[in-house]
Protein 1
Amino acid sequence: MLFRSSAAEFHKQAKLISGISPLQFFGLDNDPFGVELAKVTLMLAKKLAHDEAVAELFDNEGDYRKGVSELGFEGENALPLDNLDNNVRVGDAMFDPWPEADAIVGNPPYQSKNKLQEELGPAYLQRLRAAHPEIDGRADFCVYWFRLAHDRLKSGQRAGLVGTNTIRQNYSRMGGLDHIVTDGGTITEAVSSMIWPGEAVVHVSIVNWVKGEQAGPKRLYNQDGNLVDSGWRYEDLKRIPSSLSFFTDVTTAKSLKVNERGGCHQGQTHGHKSLLVAAGEARNLIRENAGYNGVLKPFLTSDDLVGEHHSKPTRYVIDFSAKDQLQAAKFEKLFKRVQAGALPAREKAAAEEIERNKELADSGKRGNQHHANFLKKWWQMSYGRADLMNELRGLPRYIACGRVTKRPIFDFVSASISPNDALTVFTHTDDYTFGVLQSTIHWKWFDARCSTIKSDPRYTSNTVFDSFPWPQSPSLKQVQEVAAAAVALRKLRRELCKEHDLTLRALYRSIELPGDH
């Protein structure tokens, strides 16, 4: 991360060479090689800029003195190169003091919350969270830089940072951009989301802000396409919200108790591939032994729902939920299959967890029991979602959509089919609820509130459903009209898919193309 010192500080340290000097830049990096590379780059930049500027100001006769006089380089040479040992140094920006600066720019490291412990180690992660308790542990790593940068700005000073595009969502947004805009910061220009042009497969956000007010419009960019040079648009706004959204700012919407009582769930997580059985093989096993029907269930994924004709499951799942080891062992073929696959994998994961916990214990921290708990029930799915399955029991059908999806496509699913964790499940059977969920209003709410994986929006209960303001006190006529529209929509979709041999995904993608549909 680089910092620019004031011009006054520069004058104290060096003669005037140009408007900007390497001695005005400061930085921290925990990689010694990165520090040396940054110093060399800054030193060479001075030499190259000096030579280029002088060459551009030569007249036809090559009047060197005229050129250097206009530049203010009189009596100055680009050499010797500056010594930047006191400017760019090895340090950890999370714990070491930052240099004083007028402006802060940087490209913090990208690391999702789910991989922080694996990448940094449990001891470092515990130390990080203890040092910065104001940032939710579920926030991405780069969020720490946004908050720390803002806290080090004085009134009128500026910062500009690149982060993963999750900085505008949920816990990451609350820890960083929410803090900036509520603590006197004004976002002056930003990119909501764009494809990173480098090697990393990631979508990023770019945010420039000032500590204080700035009059006039603020420009917000976004890249909607999937290619580096495609899909760009922008708008000039009076205010750029912390969600970096063009739409109404709903970042402060609160969960509604009536929504939190149930009705929206993540599907089941099988946890190991040995619990999955191809549909044809599963049906053969059930024909051989009808009792297997109680633990071998059709398992619907998001790809099945929108990517398969007729939206049928392509696999079954071995569901030993609520069965102890001896009960599960009675289903011999299935039990041996899981024993040969899931058991050694979970033993290995649990052993690795023990080693990580030893490292934590050395630093006085508590360890995790995540994989140890999986091992205790190794024959069962990682997350059987008992609450969800209890709600589905006795229902004829439920509503589902892909959990990671650009635009949610909802459909009814038979309750005899178990939902995979790639699905968000709504334990409702009525057409009115379906109509509201598939409505444009709900889609806009989803678009403004959802989190993302790369550029792919994600529908979850706590980000979208729990805070969604359902229509209040609709009349019977309105409910009937919405329900009728829902029935008509599903009928039309089925007819078009059958007529043109399309899946639901292909049908909806055709709507995104220009022209009448």
Protein 2
Amino acid sequence: ALILLLSSALLAAKPAQSSLQLQPGVDLIILIDQSGSMWGSAGRPATDPEDLRVDSARYLIDYMAFDNKFVNPHRTNRVVVIGFGSPDKTHIMVNLTSLDTEEGIASAKESIEAESLGNTNFISALRLVREVFPPASDEEVRSGLRRRVIVILTDGGPYDGRELSYGEYFTEIQDYYANELGADIYPLYTICVDEPGRYWSDVKAHWSTIAGEGHTRRVEDIKEARRVMVSLLCPLLNEPGVGTECRLQEIGEHFMPPYVRSVSFSFLKYDPDAKISLYQPDGSEVTPNDQNVLEYVSGDYSELWMLDEPQAGCWHSERVGTGKVDVFIQVVFANLEMTRPDEPHPYILPLEFGFELKNTAGQPIDALLEYPITFEAQLMAPDGSVCPVDIRRTAAGEYVSTQAAETKMSGPYTLTVQGSTVLPPFDCRPTDGSLTIFTNTYQIPTYAPTLEVTEPVSPYLQYRPVPELTFGFLDRQGRLLSAPAVGQVELRLKSPSGGRMSLPAPVWDDGRYLVAGPLVLAETGVYQADVVVRDADGAAVYEGGALLAMAENVALISPGLNHPYFAPIRRVEVELRDLQDRPVAPDPDYPLRLEAEMNWPDGRTDTVDLTPTLSLIHISEPTRPLYISYAVFCL
């Protein structure tokens, strides 16, 4: 019996970015049972005498490479192949290899061959999977960067010489799988190729327990196994709503919706002698030389047609022989690019959206008159709350949101945009009504902007009151944001000594918040401005702080340095200077009172009464503001 266990990682949360989410690359992990029972042992016939496990592994590589080359060339699929048997013989047959080059594909396929590796130890293979993909690499799956698919080709029954029951062996396998890999990253699909009643009845329940009901299937030959594998891989590799849709269909009628950028018909023939014919809605047969045929490839087991901008309607395929067809539809709206915002967004500002839809030549793609597009969009905040977003067409290939959405927290916002149109009935689609053309997901990271005091410039010389205090929000590039004058803004100042000052409510004034002065900030040092912005319901949506330094520069003019101790100090003279050591006059409307003390070496202290005056140094210099005491100080 030949059993194929297909394991795939479901789509995790997508990473934050302000563009259409692309599908993650897929890591195909093939584990090939190379135990003696595959060849025949202990007088029992071989379960895989024709090396179908090798053929199947190569087929899976071809299918993944096809997806990488023709359907999703923007990503990279990879493969690793492990042959397993006894623990000491389990080894890597194909190192982790990208399937984006012909050399890599050929090398991977050529490295797969039948071997005889002793017993059947599944855990030894799973351990090697964990070595190739250590626990830290699972974050690639959780973040949506990659997915993984495990395919185990085996005859189903574990055995390592300990003569345990199937139940005991499978309990060990399940425990290791659950604890070391996990169903959230590596869920399982089981496909059993088996003669009726030989092995399937013994292993089905065990694999169903590990894989889950509905993930276990039985087939009787390798052709049917291929069909089942493709039915699983097709939607796994091309999830609806990401710009490329995969439809595994019977050969026959194929409805082509409007707004299709390109379509790929991949005929899986299963029979090298099968012949395929493809017809357009007008009844004409498609030939390799047709103008809209981008590529035609024919092989023993597959035949590929790629067509540009196919006509909406009923396409038809016919065959001589057996087979199915993968129809890969790439809608034009997969190119719907978000142009606004074009960088992480400061959440204190409302969020507006803009989009452009262009073809590969950079020309705008307009909506079709017979199939107008209706947009439905919703924005989900980091806390899971959702609000609708109205999106309208403004010009050919241009779409914008009609009303800004409030953003009240930092973190990734997710915008889901769905476009639909109304279709008349077609022969191959008898019902009319709404048809979803695309569902695109965009993620916009938001962050808390920086708060900065813009006036006065720090440090501020405290010789006069602060005429007005203004502050604003800066983005990550240091640009001043035009924050809206909405909500309630609270401002408090904390002085260098720790005292708190409540200030009048700031008012919105031409791109900044303003507190009218004069404000007397008498302490030298750093003041901290704490700002809280509240929404209409009073909830705080922003809390931040900014610093304002208050400085002084008082110079002693007289007495000078090295004053003789026996000479009386007849005059004390000080001067106010700025930070460039230039004289500064105080505000005449707010005269300063300078308090000074004379501390003597013997510990005595005298109060110095300083009186403001103006002194003319000499004819070439301006008048200087001085503070002078004419008292005589003697030791």
